[in-house]
């Protein structure tokens, strides 16, 4: 994969919420392809974060798409709310949806891009019957719930399997990786077949600032992919 084809979605979970508008504007100026927003309910995952109000606020601050990652039970109850708040893509977890096929259609009907996320313990083959319904597969490379965790290296084979499944059916699907992506792990994610990188702490938590976070990732991608 060429390095220009890699998209970066900074996750505001690691942003400074006292100046959220500023932070997402800086990320956009630094070349973010979209803004990733982690919605957690304290039930599907052991943490509570943000809801539609934050999506609405970020929408007013940037023009790039908003990638909303729902880590909540019964996501079907809130899909329209997040679409109305300004989401451009909505991702639900396979583990939270006994009727995943129906929920993916529900997202499609809002006009948003459709995403499915898969926890580290869930095998890639569980997505086989719904592959044709999605625009994004989010392969969780940490257990969802918190930023700043370590990339689970074993997930690279899952990424490769999913990339092969997608290519075999000639589908146009972004394979997103989420959790522990930094200048040490980004290459193995890309080399195994991911093209959309969610990055929280290595961008918003970078000691030298947001632009430096992007520069480090781009440097690694340029050195290792060209
Ligand atoms: C984890 C979230 C991630 C998180 C990634 O549950 O889904 O999007 O923000 O953060 P880092 O990049 O710090 O691992
Ligand atoms: Zn996420």
Which tags fit this structure?
226 residues; alpha/beta; eight-stranded parallel beta sheet; 8 helices; 8 strands; binds D-xylitol-5-phosphate; binds zinc ion
Number of helices: 8
Q: Give the termini separation.
A: 9 Å
Uncertain segments are: none
- Give the mean pLDDT: 97
Largest sheet: 8 strands, parallel
Estimated share of beta-strand residues: 15-25%
**How do the helices and strands follow one another from N- to C-terminus?**
EHEHEHEHEEHEHEHH
Strand order in space, largest sheet: 1-8-7-6-5-4-3-2
Name the hetero compounds present: D-xylitol-5-phosphate, zinc ion
Morphology: globular
Structural class: alpha/beta
Report the count of strand segments. 8
- Cα-based radius of gyration, to the nearest Å: 16 Å
Helical content (DSSP H or I, runs of 4+): 25-40%
Can you describe what's shown?
With 226 residues, the protein is α/β, with parallel strands linked by helices. The protein contains 8 helices and 8 strands. The chain has helices spanning 20-29, 52-61, 79-85, 100-110, 155-168, 186-192, 201-204, 210-225; strands at 7-10, 35-40, 66-71, 89-93, 113-118, 136-140, 174-178, 196-199. Strands 1-8-7-6-5-4-3-2 form an 8-stranded parallel beta sheet. α1 (20-29) packs across α2. The chain is globular and about 45 Å long. Bound molecules: D-xylitol-5-phosphate and zinc ion (ZN). D-xylitol-5-phosphate binds next to β2, β8 and α7. The site of zinc ion has 6 residues, from β2.
What order do the helices and strands come in, and which of them pair?
Layout: E1 7-10, H1 20-29, E2 35-40, H2 52-61, E3 66-71, H3 79-85, E4 89-93, H4 100-110, E5 113-118, E6 136-140, H5 155-168, E7 174-178, H6 186-192, E8 196-199, H7 201-204, H8 210-225
Parallel strand pairs: 1-8, 2-3, 3-4, 4-5, 5-6, 6-7, 7-8
Helix pairs in contact: 1-2
Bound molecules: D-xylitol-5-phosphate and zinc ion (ZN).
D-xylitol-5-phosphate binds near residues 144, 148, 179 and 202.
């Amino acid at each position: 994969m060429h390095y220009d084809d890699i998209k970066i979605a900074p996750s505001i979970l690691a942003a400074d919420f006292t100046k959220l508008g500023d932070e997402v504007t800086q990320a956009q100026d630094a070349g973010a392809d979209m803004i990733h927003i982690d919605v957690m309910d304290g039930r599907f995952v052991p943490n509570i974060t943000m809801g539609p109000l934050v999506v609405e606020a970020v929408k007013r601050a940037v023009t790039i798409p908003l990638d909303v990652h729902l880590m909540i039970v019964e996501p079907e109850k809130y899909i329209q709310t997040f679409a109305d708040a300004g989401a451009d893509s909505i991702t639900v977890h396979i583990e939270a949806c006994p009727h995943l096929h129906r929920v993916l259609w529900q997202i499609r009907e809002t006009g948003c891009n459709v995403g499915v996320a898969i926890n580290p313990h869930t095998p890639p083959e569980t997505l086989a019957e719904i592959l044709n319904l999605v625009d994004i597969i989010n392969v969780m490379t940490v257990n969802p719930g918190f930023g700043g965790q370590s990339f689970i290296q074993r997930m690279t084979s899952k990424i490769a399997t999913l990339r092969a499944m997608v290519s075999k059916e000639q589908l146009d699907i972004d394979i997103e990786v989420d959790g522990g992506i930094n200048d040490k792990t980004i290459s193995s994610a890309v080399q195994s077949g991911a093209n959309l990188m969610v990055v929280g702490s290595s961008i918003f938590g970078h000691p030298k600032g947001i632009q430096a976070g992007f520069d480090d990732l781009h440097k690694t991608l340029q050195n290792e992919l060209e």
